[in-house]
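Exercise: predict the fold of this chain.
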Amino acid sequence: MYEGNNPTALQSKQMIVNAMFELLQEESYQNISVKKLADRAKLSRQTFYANFANREEVIRSELDRIFMDYKQAIDKSDNSSSQLIYLFFKFYKMHEQEIDVLLANHLEPLLTEVARECMNSLQISGENNSQYAYGFVAGGLTQILSDWNKQNKDLPIEELAELTVSLLDTSTS
């Protein structure tokens, strides 16, 4: 993935990301080719490959941006598990359209992977086996979002966050 700061390249990169999320609203991820992406972005395939290695990297770049904001919010919080959960749902609400289109395209594993990497980079847990805890929390939060979407968002997001915190609250058991 292109990591430089050339304004033209950054603009091309954003055009490709925008094209991906537009196309994901219209058709399934499996049917979106690099050619379709480049055509939608009005760029060449060569420009696509100058910025991204593959389609997944396009989605990952947007998730990385979203989770960078999430990480900064967590850094400013008390780093408790309940804050991590509330902020996760807050950031979901802020990026609902992008995340919903990923869930609709069964891209939960990618969402979980980026969430896990974000949590791991925070080094919240002092435990030796924290990678298991991060995997558990990232997978659980992503699955709860996915299930909630499948239930047509039958609970208010705040209530879903409260439910999730209560599921992980070990002090009451």
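Check your answer against the key: Residues 96 and 150 are 14 Å apart (CA to CA).
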